[in-house]
Amino acid sequence: MGLNNVALATRKGLLICDVSDNRCKVVYEAFVGSHVSYVFVDPRSGHLFACLDDGHFGNKLFRWDGFATVNDLSNADPKTVWNELATPQYPEGAKLPKGDDAVLKYQWAIATGSDDQPGRLYFGTEPGGLFVTDDHGDNFSFCHQLWDHPTRTGDIPWMGGGRDEAAIDAICIDPRNHDHVRVAISVAGVFESLDGMNSWAPVNKGLKADYLPEPDVEVGHDPHMMVQAPSNPDVFWQQNHCGVFVSSDACQTWKCVSRGEGPEHFGFAIAVDSQDENVAWVVPAVADMNRVAIDKKLCVCRTDDRGETWTAFRAGLPQENCYDFAFRHALQFRNDELVFGTACGALYLSRDRGQSWHALAEHLPPIYSVEIL
């Protein structure tokens, strides 16, 4: 069965789109005009989550409990189907490295617990806090052990990259052991817990922080996005500020597999094949201070051999006067099909593993995350 529906978190609301006939038909919209930073569906329960960054009004969190049973999205009233939940809150006394009170600034990522934890979800936030819920978001607990790690306020404290403060932008739960948790923190690096989040250690050996005087630091790395290979949970892919990195030994060591002169080197989004841990895709841009398509020509790069070689695919993508790029959560893969949204509001679909692309839409609001439904 081909890809039919996607949910988009955009600068102007949440959109659910039917893409089954190679065009983008918006069949449902909610929070129109609001900045929806992230959208996530829990495949176990069918709950759909929407994270909002309403600027002056702060962060908000909504859950659609009956999403899995809705057949006609066009008749779903946003005023009745969404339940507003209390957002994760930093505990009293939690301080930033400079001494200011820690308050929720952004909701970056959500991950599900294992099948034997049906209500568990993990929320990654800015300024660098990890929250856990065991009742689908009704209540949250704060992971003090990660927050209290001595590196957070050390010689190279956790810090913001493109944002003011550190952000947990990816969370990976080992499918073989739900006590084995890894998070990617921008800017700090990858941290691992082997004991159900009671203790944490950085696992950044092999990463490079070229923007620091000593690139081989233990902490101070900027993972833009990290994904775990479903076909081999010991393989991790990371689109880092300083290149594409892969770990073949469960994050104990990392290897840079992008070429400095190659188009695949810098970007934010990364996806891995669900059946083959050696295959991954990235959507490159020029650099951190120049977030536009390389040579103003948009491409998607794929490796089929764990980063030994890369191929740039351009068919169907704009190759003239293109200033576009993709945010870190805006690329998704499923069943040989890929879809990605861009900062300029374009949505692209590939049904041949990224070799050619079809523009589904080109005038949507900026797209922050894409979720295949």
Summarize the structure.
The chain is mostly beta strands and 373 residues long. It has 2 helices and 28 strands. The strands form 7 sheets. The chain has a 4-stranded antiparallel sheet, with no helix packed on it. It has a 4-stranded antiparallel sheet with strand order 4-5-6-7. Strands 8-9-10-11 form a 4-stranded antiparallel sheet.
Describe this structure in words.
- By secondary structure, the protein is an all-beta fold.
- It contains two helices and 28 strands.
- The strands form seven sheets. It has a four-stranded antiparallel sheet with strand order 3-2-1-28, with no helix packed on it. Strands 4-5-6-7 form a four-stranded antiparallel sheet. A four-stranded antiparallel sheet has the order 8-9-10-11.
- The longest helix has 4 residues.
- The two termini are about 10 Å apart.
- The mean pLDDT is about 95.
Keywords for this structure?
single chain; 373 residues; mainly beta; four-stranded antiparallel β-sheet
What's the structural blueprint in terms of helices and strands?
Elements: E1 5-10, E2 13-18, E3 25-30, E4 36-41, E5 48-53, E6 59-64, H1 78-81, E7 82-85, E8 106-112, E9 121-126, E10 130-133, E11 141-142, H2 144-147, E12 167-173, E13 181-186, E14 189-193, E15 201-202, E16 223-228, E17 236-240, E18 243-247, E19 255-256, E20 267-272, E21 280-284, E22 300-303, E23 311-313, E24 331-334, E25 337-341, E26 347-350, E27 358-361, E28 367-372
Antiparallel strand pairs: 1-2, 1-28, 2-3, 4-5, 5-6, 6-7, 8-9, 9-10, 10-11, 12-13, 13-14, 14-15, 16-17, 17-18, 18-19, 20-21, 21-22, 22-23, 24-25, 25-26, 26-27
